[in-house]
Amino acid sequence: MPKLTIDGKEIEVEAGTNLIEAARRLGIEVPHYCYHPGLSIAGQCRLCMVDIEKTPRPSIACNTQAADGMVVHTDTERVRDTRRSIMEFHLINHPLDCPVCDQAGECWLQIYYMKHGLYDPRMTDEKVHKPKAVPLGPHVMLDAERCILCSRCVRFCDEITGTGELGIFHRGDHSEIGLFPGRDLVNNYSGNVVDICPVGALTDRDFRFQVRVWYLDAARSICTGCARGCNIDVHVNRRRPHHAEGKRVARLKPRFNADVNAWWLCDVGRYHYDFVDAPTRLTAPVRRNNAGTAEIAWDEAVSGVAEALRRYSPDQVGVLASPRMANEDLLALRRVLEARAMRQVAYDVPPPALAEGDDFLLRSDRAPNRRGAELIGLGGDTGGLMASARAGRLKCLWVFHHDLLASGWPAADVRQALDRVETLIFTGTNANAISERAQWVLPAAAWVEREGTFTNFEGRVQRFRSAVEPLGQALPEWDLLGRIVAALGGTPAGGRAELWFRELVRTVPAFAGLSYQAIGDHGQLIPGATSAGAPTPPGRRVKVHG
Amino acid sequence: MAEIVLMRNFGRQDSHTLAGYRATGGYTAWEKAKGMEPAAITEEVKKSNLRGLGGAGFPTGMKWSFVPKTHTGPVYLVINADEGEPGTFKDRYLLERDPHALIEGMLITARAIRSAKGFVYIRGEYVQPWRIFSGAVKDAYDAGLLGNGFDIVVHRGAGAYICGEETGLLSSLEGKKGWPKIKPPFPAIKGAFGEPTVVNNVETIACVPPIINRGAEWFAGLGTKTQGGTRMYSVSGRVTKPGVYEDSCAVTLRQLIHDHAGGVSHTGKLKAVVPGGGSAAILTADEIDVAMDVDGLKAKGSMIGSAGVVVMDESVSIPEALLVLARFYAHESCGQCTPCRESTGWIYKMVHRIVDGHGRKDDLDTILDVAKRGGGTTICAFYDGAIGPYISYIEKFRGEFEALCRS
Question: With a CB-CB cutoff of 8 Å, which residues 86-115 of chain A face chain B?
């Protein structure tokens, strides 16, 4: 392994490591635009120049591999001067429309100008004009004047999705990003080009003009769009609640995890958060009876539900858990079941149409925690459970999240079952046809409003963290279920998600040895599980010369 | 005047035909080379001091020797016939008047680098050269010279100057946008279609048969100590007899203008000369006693480049001449890397403004500063070529520019 010196510090790196990555390991940032660790080397922006001893002029760090004995300087006067020049070149035709640009605040032209530019502008001629506000597809808007032609988006569509919608057209300072004729940017990963665009050229149509990025807070989380569990950051706007029509979740951004999603996130997952701030959110416990529908306090709801569970013999109660629930919630539910020795539980409700996975990150299983529900032992015969309900053998049915009337089951069958049940309990985040007719509605906090863990399809347990407060009276499911455990005479694991997780580790062998600390930000595999790592991007599976 | 080597057949009516070529000893070098070891051919070319005649002047034999000896896949020979350097039109003559010299040179080169396939990338605008060369290729196939272990594919460019840059040419040949590739890897290691590739200029390869026939020492003796042979100079502009002239690499610029091209026309008074194509730094009237080889012009701060000599007499406006080139570079910059993409356009706007009478004196310093800052920071040599004229025209003729500027 080559050992080199960067700014006086020695470091040993794997052969093939370039100087940007080698410097990064020492905490030294070499500014760059076109280089992205997930894409091929383009060497176009020319910003990552560093001085290498015995080399006559500055070299680009992205295309220079670390070599044994190499002595690199990233902060010589010559390097600083070169960076200033390159920054000026990047900016002479840039519209400098930061006040109306969504990228402002997270724009690498702004950041690097302040760090490495700070020259007095000399450009007094008319700038080159190019197309603005061009929709490239359902999610992405192009402003070609802001573009610095780093080609990251083009390389992404060539090398990651392999779909090749984008190209750079024309020549010289009239070069511009664009779609090939007859194409639209409609692949399931289109949102990623916005993430990797270092400037305001590609913006998210979903996020444009909604909220300034400096009002956003971020929390580390896990995507709930499918069973892969891509690592994300949830960006929320708590500081300007009057912006974006009051929506708190502003956007989801992928967070790097080499073993799961690398740098990427699919559009299905990226835009799967509207329900969090939707008007259909359930915000208070509800009791519905002959006297009408009333919002009630949690104490009343908890004792009411506990009483209902006690009223029936265990074989008269059926529970439809959900693979959308966190591991902690599922354990709390198991404790509820155990408190009454109830056995009729299942979580597999057929979707109305079988979802399809794609050839990269998206799994056909659109629930984030089916593996967890299975490991915690809540699997059962859903069809049999529904048949019992239809046959009148079930008096009480507790549904978590599912809208059974919008499932793969015939609606008539579901209605027949619901009609024959005396007590219908619903727990979920949003109203649906089941919550509308349930006697008891227990509002659950959405995943971004609480802590917890999901177990992905490979058996990787990953933490998600709270980004905002739960809406209204909504509670994390482990909390509301814990209260019911207490009302049934049991002892809940505790008042924090982590305490439920500790109990999970202690009592369910599949999770033995895990802890929140060990899971950290990159997740931990359950004992015996193996991970294939993040899949090879489709664009890389066919070897292209080049 | 030196012996005529490259243009030896140009006087014959049938010089472009196989029969005509054979009648003057054509393909005898190939016969001889077939009996030589590949390494011996390369060694001979190395000893001949042949240097690339397309612009960069890189020693040809050395370039060939960079192809990995252990490589088992294909090796490609690519001929750069995308002659686009302003003021250069010599390859056109070779393609039209002695196409078999190139084919024979390619056969010998291919043997030296163990290549079974060659590509000839011809500038899109060169319709007649393409027709004639393609006819010669067909005749060579019919005669069994090609198709027996070596094939030639003739490929037409589409008119972009950057496709004459060797790796831009390779990208274009591969069917991509003609963007130069970042180096390393160099083409000899990973070139066309990812395989080791030697890219040589037409004229360079046309020198190979005479070297094999008559020996490296003879060839080396025709030139200077560091560059062997003769070469073809394209002389244009304000001269009495513009045209292509062959002479030794040791000929001086004064000899070329006065002895070959008949002296300065129009006012008859020389103002400036571009010695090596548009990208070469300009020389003033008193700088023309210079040997036209790689090192001679380098010492004068210019370059021999493609040996395109553009002569300007006293009536030529240097700012207007720079405007023509600035427009050319702004138009032809491929746009791939930032300094070139942005500053060629910016400098063109400034020069344009100056020529239009709206310039300011500090514009001149801005142009010089921008050009110097961008130099050496780009992927390919295009921008380093562009700054040759930007800087030299202004530094050597600053008074003419200042006269156009407002104070």
Answer: 86, 88-90, 92-93
Residue B8 lies in a domain: no
CA distance A274 to chain B (A): 40
CB contact under 8 A, A92 and B346: yes
- Contact B87/B234 with Cβ under 8 angstroms? yes
> What pLDDT score does A546 carry?
45
CB pairs under 8 A between A and B: 99
**Inter-residue contact B79 to B121 (CB < 8 Å):** yes
What residue type is assigned to position A259 of the chain? D
Inspect the interface and report whether the beta carbons of B160 and A171 lie closer than 8 Å. yes
Q: Residue B192: which pLDDT band, with cuts at 50, 70 and 90?
A: very high
Both B209 and B266 in a single domain?
no
pLDDT greater than 50 at residue A506? yes
Which residues on B lie below 8 Å from A45 (Cβ)?
A: 337-338
- We report the CATH number of the domain holding residue B25 as 3.40.50.11540
A277 found inside a domain? no
Range(s) of the domain holding residue A163:
98-204
Quick one: A347 and A326 in the same domain?
yes
What are the respective helix, strand and coil percentages of chain B, to the nearest 5?
Answer: 45, 15, 40
Judged by CB atoms closer than 8 Å, whether chains meet at A171 and B346 is answered as no
Nearest chain B Cα to A124, which residue? Answer: B350
Residues B30 and B113 in one domain: yes
Number of H helices and number of E strands within chain B? 18, 9
Classify residue B5: in a domain, yes or no.
no
Q: Does A242 touch chain B (CB under 8 A)?
A: no
**∠ at Cα A272 (A268, A273), nearest 5°?**
165
8 A C-beta contact, residue B233 and residue B292: yes
Contact yes or no for A216/A199 (Cβ under 8 A): no
**What is the rounded average pLDDT of the residues A441-468?**
98
Single out the residue of B391, B383, B368, B278 nearest to residue B336, CA to CA. Answer: B383
Asked whether the predicted pLDDT for residue A119 surpasses 80, the reply is: yes
* Residues B309, B356 within the same domain: no
Query: How many domains is chain A built from?
Result: 3
Q: Does B2 fall in a domain?
A: no
Distance in Å, alpha carbon of A26 to nearest chain B alpha carbon: 25
Specify if B42 maps to a domain.
Answer: yes
The model's confidence at residue A245, banded by pLDDT at 50, 70 and 90, is confident
- Name the residue in chain B with its Cα closest to that of A93: B342
Statement to judge: residues B215 and B240 lie in one domain: no
Domain coverage including residue B147: 18-221
| Spatial distance between the Cα atoms of B143 and B124, rounded to a whole number of angstroms | 28
- Quote the mean pLDDT of chain B: 96
Instruction: Enumerate the residues of chain B whose CB falls inside 8 A of the CB of residue A148.
Output: 338
Mean pLDDT for chain A overall: 96
Tell me the whole-structure pTM to 2 decimals.
0.95
Of B162, B350, B377, the CB nearest to A46: B377
Q: Are residues A390 and A506 in the same domain?
A: yes
Same domain? For B182 and B302 the reply is: no
The number of helix segments (H) and strand segments (E) in chain A equals: 16, 23
A63 interface with B at CB cutoff 8 Å = yes
**DSSP secondary structure letter of residue B230:** E
Reduced DSSP (H G I as helix, E B as strand, rest coil) percent helix, strand, coil of chain A, to 5 = 30, 20, 50
A62 within some domain: yes
Best of B170, B171, B173, B341 to mutate (most A CBs within 10 Å, chain A): B341
Residue ranges of B 339-378 with Cβ closer than 8 A to chain A: 339, 341-346, 349-350, 353, 366, 370, 373-374, 376-378
pLDDT one-digit tens code per residue, B18-44 = 999 999 999 999 999 999 999 999 999
Q: What CATH number is attached to the domain comprising B369?
A: 1.20.1440.230
Query: Does some domain include residue A273?
Result: no
Helix (H, G, I), strand (E, B) or coil at A450: coil
